[in-house]
Automatic annotation (TrEMBL):
Coiled coil regions, renumbered to chain: none
PROSITE patterns in the cross-refs: GGDEF
Gene Ontology CC annotation, any one: plasma membrane
Enzyme Commission no: 2.7.7.65
Cofactor list: Mg(2+)
Domain GGDEF residue range list: 205-339
InterPro entries linked: Diguanylate_Cyclase, GGDEF_dom, Nucleotide_cyclase, Rev_trsase/Diguanyl_cyclase
Gene3D superfamilies the UniProt entry points to: 3.30.70.270
Record GO biological process: cell adhesion involved in single-species biofilm formation; negative regulation of bacterial-type flagellum-dependent cell motility
GO molecular-function terms, A-Z: diguanylate cyclase activity
Record protein name field: diguanylate cyclase
Species in which this protein is naturally found: Photobacterium chitinilyticum
Length: 339
């Protein structure tokens, strides 16, 4: 490194750390790389994006830092590794759900066979006049029992395979602990939400929350299977992104529950945003390839809350969650409070 380059780097370093302290940015390697580049003014687009984000949000959230790093600084290798982890995790989730659905079908099939055996054995006990018919019945019973044994073996194989997939998924989950993105929906995850909400609270930035839950999602999975349920989750996530504006940030909070942070929004504008999302989800239509049935019954319930001056972030989350539960109790597919 030349003397001029060393001096220039030192001057940039002297600017970087105070900037990170000023904006309360954690001193992680990626954040340091982002803010070093910002201080050096080597990438005007990066500086513009950081400035716009801080102006809109009132501070630099951890998710904003992560997103800008991934978009503008991360090497292709970094991006490829992140994509690989996400793809593997999503694949394991899909395989696991396939196995769960197949196991359920196998159990149903075994139940139907058992019922058939009972009927056939009753007919045999009562006695039928034609010996040829009885011979055929006995043959059917014997063949059916073979099918039952085969199904039981197949179910055992599926159980073993599912155990292996579960172990692999857990191993992948360990590697994803430090990730901030949900592998299935590609939204930010709960870990990212907790970091961001803490950042809003620490910097005393006003915000509102939208909590939403897909209505009767367990029943949907039980009826149509987990694969179609995963498809619905992905579509809902896309609707959230499409409806988000003014730096609103969406997160998968867990299962079929999602949460959105809206900076500097009143309760009234938050309710309008939630209504927009509710109507978008209500229009979702998915095709069940097994039955050929088109499903147009996806809806969601919403609870909203705006942070009050003396509240903690936990208080706001609790109020939004309470309103969400009230929306479910009043019939679902609605936003509460009304005013």
């Amino acid at each position: 490194m030349s003397k001029d380059s060393f001096v220039e780097s030192t001057e940039t370093l002297k600017k970087t750390v105070p900037l990170m302290i000023k904006h309360k940015v954690p001193t992680t390697p990626t954040n340091y790389a982002l803010w070093y580049t910002y201080a050096s003014q080597q990438q005007p687009l990066l500086n513009q994006a950081v400035d716009q984000g801080i102006e809109a949000l009132g501070h630099c959230t951890p998710t904003l830092c992560d997103n800008l790093y991934q978009q503008l600084l991360a090497s292709e290798t970094d991006k490829d590794m992140k994509q690989l982890k996400q793809s593997l995790t999503a694949m394991m989730q899909e395989l696991s759900h396939t196995m769960s659905d197949t196991l359920s079908n196998a159990e149903t099939f075994q139940g139907a066979l058992s019922h058939t055996f009972s009927k056939l054995e009753s007919a045999e006990r009562e006695g039928l006049s034609l010996e040829d018919t009885m011979t055929l019945v006995r043959e059917l019973i014997r063949e059916s029992r073979q099918i039952q044994l085969s199904t039981g073996t197949f179910k055992g194989q599926l159980s073993n395979a599912q155990q292996e997939i579960t172990a692999l998924r857990e191993a992948l989950s360990e590697s994803q602990k430090e990730a901030n993105e949900d592998a299935l929906t590609r939204l930010n995850n709960r870990r990212a939400f907790e970091r961001d909400i803490q950042s809003y609270t620490d910097n005393n930035i006003p915000f509102s929350l939208i909590m939403m839950d897909i209505d009767k999602f367990k029943d949907f999975n039980d009826t149509f299977g987990h694969l179609l349920g995963d498809q619905v989750l992905k579509i809902v996530a896309r609707r959230l992104l499409e409806c988000s504006r003014d730096y609103a940030q969406s997160y998968r909070f867990g299962g079929e529950e999602f949460i959105i942070i809206l900076p500097h929004k009143t309760l009234s504008s938050t309710r309008q945003q939630a209504e927009t999302i509710r109507r978008a989800i209500e229009k979702i239509s998915v095709l069940d390839k097994k039955s050929g049935q088109r499903i147009n019954s996806v809806t969601a319930s919403f609870g909203i809350a705006t942070k009050q001056e003396d509240e903690t972030s936990a208080d706001v989350i609790a109020r939004a969650d309470s309103h969400l539960n009230q929306a479910k109790q009043l019939g679902r597919n609605r936003v509460l409070p009304v005013n």
